[in-house]
Amino acid sequence: MCWTAPGCYANLGKNLHLDNAVKYVFSLLVVSLLGCSEGLGSIPDSELRQRHYRCQMATGQSSAEIQVCKNIKRECEQRAKEGNYAC
């Protein structure tokens, strides 16, 4: 707990740095799990549609998050070629 304003502001930068590190580690975890699984072919259309929408609305993504969104877009396009317009 900080008791003075300068002490609180000094910790603010440290907390932001920690938040970015947590975001980066979480993104790597998501990408690694997607890479080790069967891929996106096994998820239901409704979940794929939700993930695709979140990717379209997202801003300030990390490189790992961008790669996940590319994989989701690729799966949407693959399903569209097969006549399943899920996204």
Q: Please, what is the average pLDDT?
A: 78
What can be said about the biggest beta sheet? none
Helix/strand order = HHH
Q: What is the total tally of β strands?
A: 0
Question: What proportion strand?
Answer: under 5%
Please compute the radius of gyration using only Cα atoms.
Answer: 18 Å
**What is the molecular shape?**
elongated
> Helical region count?
3
What class would the helix/strand composition place it in? mainly alpha
Distance between the termini: 46 Å
Low-confidence stretches: none
Q: Can you give the helix content as a percent range?
A: over 70%
Fold blueprint:
Elements lengths: L4 H32 L8 H13 L5 H19 L6
Helix pairs in contact: 1-3, 2-3
Can you summarize this structure?
The protein is an all-alpha fold and 87 residues long. It has helices spanning 5-36, 45-57, 63-81.
